[in-house]
Amino acid sequence: MPLWLHQRALLTPERIAYETENSRLTFHELDQSARQLACILSSKGIAEGSHIAVLQENTLNFVRTQHALMYLHAICVPLNLRLAKRELSFQLADCAAGFLIADLATYEKAQQANTNCQLLTIEQLLEEATDTLPQPVLQREISLNDPCTIIYTSGTTGRPKGVVLTYGSHWWNANASLINLGLRETDEWLCCVPLFHVSGLSLLIKNVIYGMPVFLCRHFHAADVHQQILAGKVSHISLVASMLQRVLDDAGAARFPDTFRCVLLGGGPVPPVLLKRCLERRIPVYQTYGMTETASQCVTLPPEYMQAKAGSAGKALFPLQIQIDSGTRPAEAGEPGEILVKGPTVFSHYLNREDATRDAFTDGWFRTGDIGYLDADGFLFVLDRRKDLIISGGENIYPAEVEAVLRLDTNVTGAGVIGIPDSAWGQKPIAFVTVHRSDAFDADDLIALCRSHLAHYKVPKQVILCDELPENAAHKLLRRKLYERWLQENPSNPL
């Protein structure tokens, strides 16, 4: 099919593609700047099939870089800005990146992490004249089976793996979302999630396929997001629960305009208390379930089911299927098991990990590693990551379930639950929480709250007050960091 930006610039050249706080860019202007950058990158030796690492903030230059690489049929490897030098170095070596394209804000970190690939800065590249450069043959077509991006998993449970997503993965994800949400001439999507994360990158793809403007935020600030929504132009936004909670806190009693029609909410189970706040204020929340391996959302719950199916992630998007595996057979309704996904958005393979790729699939079904169940109506309820499951005395404890109860306390702003060794039960749950007011924190009260809502074996044996909970750049809880903290404070109790 035609290369997406080339086709979009042909169809609607003067339509606004991106807005930021200080600038606007049409699809024609985006296309011209991406082509020029592609010529410059070609002159540096970037060729078809090259793995090109990108370490840049949420700017229009990131967008230009992605599209320029598509014009060259090079494969973009977006890197997480929050990673430490060692983590970045691992990913650069693992993907065998020939070049690393940074920006001025990330240059120092890129310089420290880079060992073998050529380091370029996007600002300097864009200053180069193209008049004297040889004109490469820019690609005008793409094959949906070809690799487009390599996105490393967040590493919430271990060492990241490079997820190879094809053009087809991204194409079908965009179209699955379009079938679900529809498209209006006045729609504009606010992007405040990282472009290096699959949820942000999926908006970059939707932008050219839909011809829909994106308001691009360099960083997430709840007050700025709220103000943009109140201005009345933004119709859609992608958030995780902790981000939405901050936006609502900042908004106070202010009413969201009728033009605002979608909060696409991902990143794990949504606390019931947060859903209640959204229902009371008639905020259109689409709960979702997805991951890097499915090119973002693969299951979504429409707002009309927010109350009747509270806590559900919804049903599979149109071109996808989901199934629950009990271990020996497809699970019955209400029976927990591993969530399996099949469909054209699912990734191609893990880079350099034939064993992991082989283990990830059974008869064409992708094994997500997540635990959930389908109710009698076919709605998916996600319980937790299989690797995060706590087994105490032979009973399964899903941390997300305990965390949701802890958040029922209006003073609690965040919660993270892990299982620690216990000589009698194998494991026992403990909780880490953040609060609005530390002087109102009472661990015994929180434990009593859990006792009133949970079976005794699920109740945390200890509640620890934190200044903040560890999160990745997509604001998902890094549970392994809680384990690390426990180990530091309890070196005689190895996990």
UniProtKB/TrEMBL annotation:
- What EC identifiers does the entry list? 6.2.1.26
Q: Where is the AMP-dependent synthetase/ligase domain?
A: 7-351
The organism's place on the tree of life at top rank = Bacteria
The Swiss-Prot or TrEMBL record annotates one GO molecular function as: o-succinylbenzoate-CoA ligase activity
Query: Does Glycoprotein count among this protein's keywords?
Result: no
Annotated pathway? Quinol/quinone metabolism; menaquinone biosynthesis; Quinol/quinone metabolism; 1,4-dihydroxy-2-naphthoate biosynthesis; 1,4-dihydroxy-2-naphthoate from chorismate: step 5/7
Ranges of residues in domain AMP-binding enzyme C-terminal: 401-476
Q: Which Pfam family, an example, fits this chain?
A: AMP-binding
UniProt keywords, alphabetically: ATP-binding, Ligase, Menaquinone biosynthesis, Nucleotide-binding
Q: Which family does it belong to?
A: Belongs to the ATP-dependent AMP-binding enzyme family. MenE subfamily.
> What is the protein named?
2-succinylbenzoate--CoA ligase
Q: What gene name does this entry carry?
A: menE
